[in-house]
Amino acid sequence: MNLTAKQLKDYFKEIVEMIEKEKDYLCELDRKLGDGDHGVTMSIGWQAVNEKLNNELAEEQDCAKISLTVGKTFLSAVGSSVGPLYATGFMRGAKAVKGKTEMNDNDLAEYWIAFAKGIKERGQAEVGDKTMIDTLEPFFISLEKQFAESNEFLPAFTTAVEEAKKGMESTKDIVSKKGRSSRLGERSIGAQDPGATSAYLILSTFLNFVKGQVEVR
């Protein structure tokens, strides 16, 4: 499958809409573990991205430049720790597709593996710390393995998103070891991590988006 620069921008616009829909849910999850503002923070970041998509990036055809601008824009709009993490993810993804106006199966796999690994490197968290890495590490491990075996992006990505979902759900049973929520100790058990949840939603939004594009054809 191929994804054009226009489709990449359309996908980012779908994230903007999804975050608005899920904003209250993400804040509700965060109230159990942190400041209760994760949904608002994500919304601020993605509204800033939306502004760029509608103006500066409206005619842009370079997939790397689009992803790079999305990362930098999110970073300048969001002060909290999630800003540098997503910025790193989208900027690493951009490096993987430098100069491309269209991404094929191989490009898409490399983009998402670079995205997830970039966040893992930047965040210095491990699986079991109750963070977005509980979603992203099982995702990139699965995507690398499945894509190496099949060379088909959509089936590999579908399986990887299933692994991401299991990782997200596993955070309910984990004691938080990172960030503000780590102060809660055992009391953090039973609450699903908001960062792990928004990371999963970004991946599942892409899955639904590309499935929709395939059906349109």
UniProtKB/TrEMBL annotation:
Which Gene3D superfamilies did the record assign? 1.25.40.340
Q: Which domain of life is it from?
A: Bacteria
Annotated keywords: Kinase, Transferase
Instruction: Report any Pfam family annotated for this entry.
Output: Dak2
Asked if Isomerase is a keyword of the record, the answer is no
* Keyword DNA repair included in the entry's annotation: no
Residues of the DhaL domain:
6-208
Q: What terms describe the molecular function in GO for this protein?
A: kinase activity
| Cited SUPFAM superfamilies | DhaL-like (SSF101473)
Recorded hits in PANTHER family, A to Z, give: TRIOKINASE/FMN CYCLASE (PTHR28629), TRIOKINASE_FMN CYCLASE (PTHR28629:SF4)
Q: What is this protein called?
A: Dihydroxyacetone kinase
- What is the source species? Oceanobacillus caeni
